[in-house]
Design brief:
By secondary structure, the protein is of the alpha/beta class. The chain has helices at about 1-20, 30-45, 50-55, 70-75, 85-100, 120-125, 145-155, 165-180, 195-205, 215-225, 230-240, 245-265, and strands at about 65-70, 105-110, 130-135, 155-160, 180-185, 210-215. A six-stranded parallel beta sheet has the order 3-2-1-4-5-6, with helices on both faces. The protein starts with a helix and ends with a helix.
């Protein structure tokens, strides 16, 4: 009996989440969404967090998203994550930043060289992003134009993802941290030549105070609450980060359609 009750509660929780995603909310324009998102991730909470509690989580209002060297040539060397997952999470990360009004800066090393072009689906996912060309620097933090673009945002929290984790991500992450930035590294939107390379880079970064996160973590901490007028748009992003989560909403919608038809027939 206890197991049945537990199963029922689990199903209820899933269904409730699906209902929240599918509420008929009118999506705001991008300009309105960005204006609203500057405060609503906190204003929609029923308890105003203390300063300590708020500082314990990622602050999207102070963040810049840096996407580094997501190039198709480099993808062919990645062995610590499935390429399809890496590409999906990178696109989702860009869409999260767009939805939240977080500035996006991206760059690539040697576009015309063996590292290849930037993954083709990425620019379309982030129309407001700024591209900064480098002059051969391995670390983007060694490029004057790139650092100037970051400084121009006036923000001090960096969310970084890229290929390779141990080089293209770790080098600027370590350098920026040394210069006073708070840095979060999105591990599942980054890739490396081996799990060992990724693990060693992660240990090195954590030792310097850099925070490892996943795409879903950034999504949830940016979203923060369903009590906001753009909740439906955030719901779509959860479906992009987790295809299984999308399946929950799809099955719920189909059940609702069937129930509606049944009621109409009666």
């Amino acid at each position: 009996m206890r197991s049945i009750n537990k199963l029922g509660k689990t199903f209820l929780a899933i269904a409730t989440g699906a209902v929240m995603l599918m509420q008929p909310i009118t999506a705001p324009t991008m300009a309105n969404a960005q204006e609203a998102n500057s405060t609503l991730h906190l204003d929609g909470l029923s308890r105003t967090p203390t300063e300590a509690a708020n500082n314990a989580l990622f602050d999207p209002n102070d963040a810049v998203l840096l996407l580094l060297d997501h190039q198709t040539g480099l993808f062919q060397t990645v062995n610590d994550i499935e390429i399809a997952e890496l590409r999906r999470n990178t696109v989702a990360l860009a869409k999260i930043a767009e939805q939240a009004g977080i500035p996006i800066i991206y760059t690539a090393s040697e576009l015309d060289g063996s590292n290849g072009p930037i993954m083709e689906e990425l620019p379309a996912a982030m129309p407001s992003a700024q591209y900064v060309a480098r002059q051969g620097e391995v670390s983007s933090w060694d490029n004057a134009d790139f650092v100037a673009a970051v400084e121009a945002t006036g923000r001090k929290t960096l969310v970084i993802a890229g290929v390779w984790t141990s080089v293209c991500v770790a080098f600027p992450a370590l350098q920026a941290t040394a210069e006073g930035y708070e840095v979060f590294v999105v591990m599942d939107a980054s890739g490396d030549v081996s799990k060992m390379a990724s693990d060693v880079a992660l240990e090195r970064m954590v030792a310097e105070g850099i925070v490892p996160v996943t795409t879903n973590t950034i999504l949830s901490e940016t979203h923060r609450t369903w009590n906001r007028p753009d909740a439906a748009e955030w719901g779509k992003l959860y479906g992009e980060v987790s295809p299984a989560y999308r399946a929950v909403t799809e099955s719920y919608n189909r059940a609702q359609e069937a129930a509606t038809k049944s009621d109409a027939a009666e």
